[in-house]
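Ticket reopened. Same input as before:
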Amino acid sequence: MVTSVDSDVLKALSDPLRMQIVRLLAREALCTTHLVEETGARQTNLSNHLKALRDAGLVDTEPCGRFTYYSLRPEAVEALAGELAKLAATAREAAGRKRSC
Amino acid sequence: MVTSVDSDVLKALSDPLRMQIVRLLAREALCTTHLVEETGARQTNLSNHLKALRDAGLVDTEPCGRFTYYSLRPEAVEALAGELAKLAATAREAAGRKRSC
DNA sequence: GTAACGTATCACTCCATGGTGACGTCAGTC
DNA sequence: GACTGACGTCACCATGGAGTGATACGTTAC
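Engineering reply: fixed in the latest deploy. New output:
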């Protein structure tokens, strides 16, 4: 498929809390403790969501002593943005086309 | 919030069947019958998903006799793509920044 | 008029997923 | 060594959402 638009990434981003995490990580790398402060969510809950983001390839982890730094992977977000832009372009040039019933 | 990245739109796109519908509609306007043929899903099921896409502002409807044509709204997809690109850009320029523990 | 067709809505079941507490593990401090 | 704090994993429960059949509504054909 040409425009495969990774469904896993979209799913990972479709949760409001995960989206909030991604927005925070876009500004600077943070460790779980910071995210607990910023979001008000429980550590366990965050750990689950961070695992989901990791599995989707959206964030990188970097252990630092007993802390773990999380950072956003710009290329993953860019890839998704590109796919969507391509989809929109396709829709624009197909505007008006309709299959007859 | 600057990068508000509409969570509803992401949620609407995060379902594989809905993503498939969007991809089909990007190429040409289709009515439910066509989508039933293309996807193999039940009419009721499709109607539900189309409602979700309508509510998210991703598709337009155009009644045509007893048929209803659905078409993708490029601007909705473009808006999302733009937000994500902006997010990726923020992440790129913040690369290396980390909050100390 | 009635029949047939395309589509939307409702009520329901079932499954996936989010949130939580208990617990385990690893690193640093004493 | 023991203790504490930072994270991750597991098992459980509750909720949301997907899929479905029955049904209602509007339009076209007869």
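The first helix of chain B runs from residue 7 to 13. The beta strands of chain B are 30-31, 59-64, 67-72. Please confirm and we'll close it.
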